[in-house]
Amino acid sequence: MDFILQPWAWYIGGPLIAISLLLYFYFGKNFGASTNFETLCTMAGAGKISDYFKTDWKERSFALLFVIGLIIGGYISSIYLIPEQTIDLNPNTVQELSNLGFSNIGNQYFPDEIFSDEVVFSLKGFLILLVSGVFIGFGTRYAGGCTSGHAITGLSSLQLPSLLAVIGFFIGGIIAAWFLIPILF
Questions:
Q1: How many domains does the chain have?
Q2: Residues 57, 43: contact at Cβ < 8 Å?
Q3: How many CA atoms lie within 13 A of 183 on its CB side?
Q4: Among the three residues 60, 83, 106, which one is the final residue of a domain in this structure?
Q5: What element of type H or E holds 44?
Q6: Which of 66, 91, 96, 129 falls 20 to 30 Å from 184 in CA-CA distance?
């Protein structure tokens, strides 16, 4: 179990991702998760409202298995494979997050200031989740895919739009980390 519980080195994780990509390419599929939102909307009958959703969702049913695997794997790893919740963070990061009003920095993966029930069900927390979800949903469709699809599949197949999207993701992350999060918290 120690092998599973410890972080894996790049020379193990990298080839595993490469093997996964080779299998996706071999079977003519794209790696990513954002199209599953579109597939779920299509399955729910959104094609009656918009022509955009008039597609054959069965062609993308393999991707739903990928997302189901993500959910199951995330649950298993969060319940059974995290030996402890403490995180070894840089002291400067701990200080900066404390200055923003976060407590228990490094003692848990999900800060209570963002993920506790009272925050999520507050007006501010609900609005943050709603606006973030709309931005993420619109952004992934506008960019033609999600971060994993562009950064892993797109870059590995040398697609210029994916490179531009990944650069945009990093710029957006920097803006969020340096400007939006300090304003919101």
A1: 2
A2: yes
A3: 7
A4: 83
A5: none
A6: 91
The answer to whether the CB of 31 falls within 8 A of the CB of 152 is: yes
Q: Look up residue 56 and give its amino acid.
A: D
Last residue of a domain, one of 64, 83, 102: 83
CA angle 119–121–122, rounded 5-degree value:
65
Cα 132 from Cα 126, distance rounded (Å): 10
| pTM of the full structure | 0.63
Cβ neighbours of residue 175 closer than 8 Å, sequence gap 6 or more: none
Residue 150 and residue 75 share a domain: no
pLDDT tens for each residue of 37-67: 788 888 888 888 888 888 887 887 888 888 8
Q: Is residue 109 part of a domain?
A: no
Tell me the CA distances in angstroms from 117 to 14, 122, 150, 182, one per residue in order: 36, 8, 33, 21
**Domain of 72?**
1-83
Q: What is the pLDDT of residue 138?
A: 78
Long-range contacts formed by 78-82: CB under 8 A, 24+ apart: 81/4, 81/5, 82/109
In a domain, 91, yes or no: no
Is position 96 within any domain? no
- Judge whether 107 lies within some domain: no
**Are residues 59 and 17 both part of a single domain?**
yes
pLDDT digits (tens, 9 = 90+) for 63-120: 888 889 989 998 988 888 876 777 888 899 889 888 888 888 888 877 888 888 888 8
d(CA 13, CA 7): 9
